[in-house]
């Protein structure tokens, strides 16, 4: 899957790098995340059950892959979100996700540079809405400009 000029690869359970289409990549990501979050050994739901030692690295991997999916949606499908009037929701999701991964250092900033222009528009305090929801017209215009420039 490619976003702008960046190629993303999926790595299978043996660590083999796989070049795949965007639909395949998104399916791999969503299936993998679903499998992890429903695994009681990874995300325990019972009181007193310990999280695994690998928990932080697994959460970081999940966040990295979900970022790739969001980047793909913006680079390849943003016009459709505009047509469906879903861009405000997408911008809100993206803003919350970026602020969350920054707060807890879950994705290497080098990984997210591909979307820095959009992140600046949506996460800056000078955006049109103070809550960062991305529902304001200047935030939507910024997202549109980001897509057009790429």
From TrEMBL:
ATP-binding keyword on record: no
Sequence positions that bind Zn(2+): 72, 77
Region (Disordered): 125-150
Keywords from the named record: Metal-binding, Zinc
Keyword Metal-binding assigned: yes
Biased composition (Low complexity): 125-140
Protein name: MOB kinase activator 2
Species lineage: Eukaryota, Metazoa, Chordata, Craniata, Vertebrata
